[in-house]
Design goal:
The structure holds two protein chains of two kinds. By secondary structure, chain A is of the alpha+beta class. Helix content of chain A is 21%, strand content 19%. Chain A contains four helices and five strands. The longest helix of chain A is centred in the first third of the chain and has 11 residues. In chain B, the strands form two sheets. Chain B has a four-stranded antiparallel sheet with strand order 3-4-5-6. In chain B, strands 1-2 form a two-stranded parallel sheet. Classes of the chains: A alpha+beta, B alpha+beta.
Chain lengths: 151, 169
Amino acid sequence: MRGVWIGTLYKLQGGTVGYGCNSSVVLGRGVENLVVSGDKTMLWHQRLEHIGEKGLQIVHGKGMVEGMNNSSLDFDLYENCIYGNHNRVSLPFGGKRAKQILELVHSDVFGLVKVLSLGKSMYYVSFIDDFSRNTWIYFLKKKSEVFDRFK
Amino acid sequence: MIGLNNLSLWWKTRKVLRIDNGGEFCSKEFEELYKKCSIAWKNTTAYTPKKNGFVERMNKTLMERERSMLSGVRFGHEFWAKAVETTCYPVNRSPSSPLEDKTPQDIWTCKKPSLSHMKVFGCDAYVHVPKEERTKMDSKSKKCIFIRYKDGIKGYKLWNPITRKVMYN
């Protein structure tokens, strides 16, 4: 890597593409062409504040901006974006239905409701029979009362 | 009461309780009861209410109806529990698409539910005062507000706005 002596410092002419949070992106004019395609994609990804793959492809492919080279894009996994964008896969629909009453009972405690009811309850526990879809609801003042209701 | 304990006497098939890993369902008391009644319980992983979607969807239905009910009447928010309780009653007696438009109550009791006694939540109700509880000059009726159905019997739970008390009729 070359450097130009300016005053008491050597200013680097090369480029660094930052993969970590703290690594800086220093690129001199014309140096972009020297960087391999994958790194360049990453550089633009970072310059555009972590734009998504699709967005970058549109910006690049349709020539919407000036100053971006026309060479191909090469996307790679970028660790910081995993930390920032990690999502859960949506759950598949399904599960077995019960064939008989009370074979499967779904249950949940709802609350805390901040407004006390007339009977001073803040929660309710619901039991739903999977086969008949019959619902029972019992109101609770404390979550610990669930057991008494369940009995 | 759901009475799973009693029902288990005649009901010998495998029963499963689907719960959401909440601490309230995982106590030692519960585990003993599960074993005693041979109930298998299936916990979902923590913070995934989606896996307990069945109940959560019902909660949504109940709370949505509760909001509509309370906005339609002159009650304050403290009536939420009454409204939810009242909602549950017609929900069990309304057709459900997964049941091919049968009603839950029909499947549960093998009997067609009757809706002849249904009333509108928050409507005025005039309650007859028995002879023993009034003098000759007192009015023979009291004005109350209907809040819910009484379990088991064809009776009503009413709210007396003057005494701020619940009464049954």
